[in-house]
Write the structure tokens for this entry.
Amino acid sequence: MKLYLLSASFCLLLFLTGCYDLTELEQKAYVVAIGIDQTDKQGMYEVSFQIANPEVGTTTQAAATDKKPKETVTLVAPDFISAQNTANSFVTRELTFDHTKVLIISEELARSGELLNIIQAANQESQLRRGVQMIVSKEKASEFLTNTAPPMETRPHKYYQFMLERGRETGLIPDADIHRFFQITEGDADLFLAVYAASMATDKDVKGNEDEFSAGEVPQMGKKETQFIGSAFFKEGTMIDRLDGEETRLTLIMDNTLNMEDVLTTYPDPMDDHYRITTKYIQKDKTSVKINYVQDGKAKIDIYIPFHLEVLAVPSLIDYSNNKENLQLLRTSLETYITDVAEKFIKKTQEEYKSEPFYWSLYVRHHFNTIAEYEEADWHNQIYPNADISITFDLKNIRFGKLIKSADLEEVRD
């Protein structure tokens, strides 16, 4: 009996070894952003880790007023996994990627053709979540992380979260997680959009509407802050171009695989070209994509996009809500304007990029019996660039919010 109890007790001890590799929270250093830059030596990269200080920005801040909210360290390594271990030679706490929000790639590296060599580690690292957003910085990633110092947000992870959420709300940046990057790149049929950002604004006098800028071009008064607007265009894992905010928004509208929320935008006032009308673009139904594929001939692609608009501001004070003729003119003008812009962008993708960022390849695959047949047909270089594409924007309804009638300028000035 005693031998039985002793054996049972020994077996129970085996279940008490589950915490042998436990690491306390205070022993960890949480990396919120990873930056990667090129070096002069092939196969070696500058890897930057932005580490958050969890004490700053919390109720315990009073005891840590002299501490920085974040710290950025940079070192040279073949990939960011080995850099993680090397950094622990001078960082006192164990680096962890559990709360990493963004992966920042310099534009130089993104265009070099070497990105896939180093970013493969993101596909294998279990700590790094597949929802981490991919950002291409106009300058070096290390400079971007150092220069980004938001005055209104002390917690760096919240800063990236809020900036990306606001950008997607206006449709000026894409949803660009690393899972989607690998999915599109390995599919070898479509183009991937990453968020484009810049921490140093240009001093040039760049003019345009609110969505016709790329990061670094938005005119700012006072201190120059980091800008998130537009997207970086990737084909087969290499950046080939960048899109402004308007082109990025069009891509979101025509891609059913992305979550399309109500976005704020402006359009030319059809009765006074000095002004633009501020609206909320609402797309309740998905974009209809129909592809008629003909072997050894041109494919026919028909795109139908139903949408609604809520007019938020009419600076010209022209009455569009109560005047039926003005309302019809506004409706026709909006449909024509959006269609013209979309047609020009689609033509650009066919002629310059020889592929598209809308994930339309999904709608042609059912025409093939095997993957080999689909790959031989070559959506990238043959089907899409030579296809006849027609696009229709159908404005279903225009709302005017709470204001039924605009102010009468003549009565005000009387």
